[in-house]
Amino acid sequence: MNQSVAVTIEGRYSAFYRWRFLGYQDTLYVWQGIQFFRECDIYGTVDFIFGDARALFQNCNVYARRPRQGQSNTITAQGRESGKNISGIVMQNCTIASAPELLPRLNVKTYLGRPWKNYSTTVIMHSLLDKLIDPSGWLEWAGQGHGIDKVYYAEYENRGPGANTSSRVKWARTIKYREANKFTARNFIQGQKWIGLTRIPYYLDL
Prior knowledge:
Blueprint: E1 7-9, E2 13-17, E3 20-21, E4 28-30, E5 34-38, E6 41-44, E7 46-51, E8 54-58, E9 61-64, E10 73-78, E11 88-92, E12 95-98, E13 110-113, E14 121-125, E15 128-129, E16 152-156, E17 172-174, H1 177-180, H2 185-188, H3 191-194
Parallel strand pairs: 1-4, 2-5, 3-6, 4-7, 5-8, 6-9, 7-10, 8-11, 9-12, 10-13, 11-14, 12-15, 14-16, 16-17
């Protein structure tokens, strides 16, 4: 249950189809480059999908596990440091739920993510958010109050008992189609140019 990176990805273009990533804290380090994940299973506890890549997850299952005593779960921790970069973590049509070991302990707070750096960017859209998600949705990184106005944390047309945005933190946003369209495979990771070469089934748009 300790901090341990299972996979670090730093290639210019990377695609993963039906992989399973197992860990606790810091499971999947999407370090840099353009990355695409389709129909993968990802397990972890604290910041378990993290890094500064331009990473898109489609039709993936994301499972929060039971953390160490006194810890909360944070699913993402995106590390964009500059307003000039184009990076972020995007989840489209994914399922975010509890791993079996967490189900008896749903009193553990679980958040969609927290901003690792000042320009952190994370978007969850058309996804199923189960009841484990805390109503506030997102968690501020300790001591980061001075830069929280620069982060971009957004949700678009999610569903499920954890998808109600009425009690979300003030610095998160609920976006509409025109804004969400910027984060599709076509626009965010140039999907029409390279994903098709891998023969992975995917969709470009919302």
